[in-house]
Amino acid sequence: MLIGNVGAEPEVRYVEQGVAVGSLRIATTERGYTLQNGTQVPERTEWHNVVAWRKQAEFVEKYVHKGDKLYIEGSLRTRSYDDRNGVKKYVTEVWADNIEFLSSPRGAQTPGTAEPSAQGETQAPF
Length: 126
Prior knowledge:
Blueprint: E1 2-6, E2 11-15, E3 19-30, E4 33-34, E5 40-41, E6 44-53, H1 55-63, E7 69-82, E8 88-101, E9 117-119
Parallel strand pairs: 6-8
Antiparallel strand pairs: 1-3, 1-7, 2-3, 3-6, 4-5, 7-8, 8-9
């Protein structure tokens, strides 16, 4: 489970048989604090790669924008690839099961209507 802000406009593409796959970056922030001995612990921000498939990706494409605050549930997946120099790199991603707005989405909801959310399957199309 993550609560964070979208760091850039999401990217959505369509793969085999028109299946939508979206990717977005979410920033989560741990607030700074002061220890009892007076030591200051600074605020810390972590960035997370989120992948959404099918209806979730279509939801992301239609509603999600940079700066939106989201609640995301999903599972972690790690994949590897070789970079241009042949060095193996690893990427950990959150494959979203559920995405919900915590801030009002652009495209204004009228009072009394539900905020958009997306729930869906996380399986790749192949």
